[in-house]
From TrEMBL:
Gene: thiD
One CC-aspect GO term: cytosol
Protein source organism: Pedobacter miscanthi
GO MF annotations, alphabetized: ATP binding; hydroxymethylpyrimidine kinase activity; phosphomethylpyrimidine kinase activity
Protein EC: 2.7.1.49
SUPFAM superfamilies in UniProt: Ribokinase-like
Ranges of residues in domain Pyridoxamine kinase/Phosphomethylpyrimidine kinase: 16-263
Pathway(s) of this molecule: Cofactor biosynthesis; thiamine diphosphate biosynthesis
Keywords assigned by UniProt, alphabetized: ATP-binding, Kinase, Nucleotide-binding, Transferase
Protein name, as recorded: hydroxymethylpyrimidine kinase
GO biological process: thiamine biosynthetic process
Length: 277
């Protein structure tokens, strides 16, 4: 009798009780793309579509034990890391994952709230560059996060090229710099690979409030496509297309009183089964 396995994606991220971002968005994304999702909780925010009212921390020892327990049982084909907001958390995640080399890691360096407020301290940014950049296959900052990493303003497409080159020199291997915050009718993102090439991706920009969790969704979508066997360039392209379609599929839906979620299940896939040799 043949045996099968599911392509698995682990998400290491925070909680979102409103269901639009964080671990909830990641589980929806991986599931919608046909992958099996496991998760590690890093923080417990109290939030809804209108904002975050409190954040309760998870002990770092619990985070370490979560990662080890899942990886020792259901080893993923890809890992997505979301918001890591303290130096101690960065060090714990990096030290634990270094014991399991070889699995592609997509890191979404959440550093700035939608209000524009910076969420992490400078020492945590330094720890992220030192500890998480070297073990990540891809990082996916938006323009505000790129400005923090590159220590320069990022307002235009020209600024994005300049910031991207500076971020690459910090030690990351591949970089997807998201241009969703740029004014204009299109979204332009830049993908810098480890050979010095830059690819441009352009998508129509929708007028909608329903974009909560789009960054979480994108990074997990890329990780999911990697788990499905796509190469990185194709995973980056397919991940962005998925997010664009998920936003389009949820434009006319009202969920909550604030910024609503994407429609992750606009075209859900069956759970993929790979034959075990």
């Amino acid at each position: 009798m043949k045996k099968y396995s599911y392509p698995s994606v682990m998400t290491i991220a925070g909680f979102d009780g409103s269901g639009g971002a964080g671990i909830q968005a990641d589980i929806k994304t991986a599931s919608a793309l046909g992958c099996y999702s496991t998760s590690v909780l890093t923080a417990l925010p109290v939030q809804n579509t209108q904002g975050v009212s409190a954040i309760y921390p998870i002990p770092t020892v619990a985070i370490k034990e979560q990662i080890e327990t899942v990886l020792d049982d259901i080893f993923p084909q890809a890992i997505k890391i979301g918001m890591v907001h303290t130096t101690e958390l960065v060090n714990t995640i990096a030290a634990t994952l270094k014991k399991y080399p070889g699995t592609p890691i997509v890191f979404d360096p959440v550093m700035v709230a939608s209000s524009g407020d910076k969420l992490i301290e400078e020492e945590t940014v330094a720890a992220i560059i030192k500890q998480l950049f070297p073990i990540s296959l891809l990082i996916t900052p938006n323009m505000d996060e790129a400005a923090i990493l590159a220590k320069t303003k990022v307002k235009t497409l020209k600024d994005m090229y300049t910031a991207g080159e500076k971020i690459l020199k910090l030690g990351c291997r591949h970089l997807l710099l998201k241009g969703g915050h740029m004014d204009g009718p299109t979204i332009t993102s830049l993908y810098f690979d480890d050979k010095g090439r830059v690819n441009t991706f352009e998508f129509e920009k929708f007028t909608t409030r329903n974009t909560h969790g789009s960054g979480c969704t994108l990074s997990c979508a890329i990780a999911s496509y990697l788990a499905l066997g796509k190469d990185l360039h194709e995973a980056v392209q397919l991940g962005q297309t998925y997010v664009h379609q998920a936003i389009s599929g949820g434009i006319d839906v009202r969920t909550g009183k604030g910024n609503g979620p994407l429609n992750h299940f606009f075209n859900p896939k069956k759970l993929v089964k790979h034959e075990v040799v």
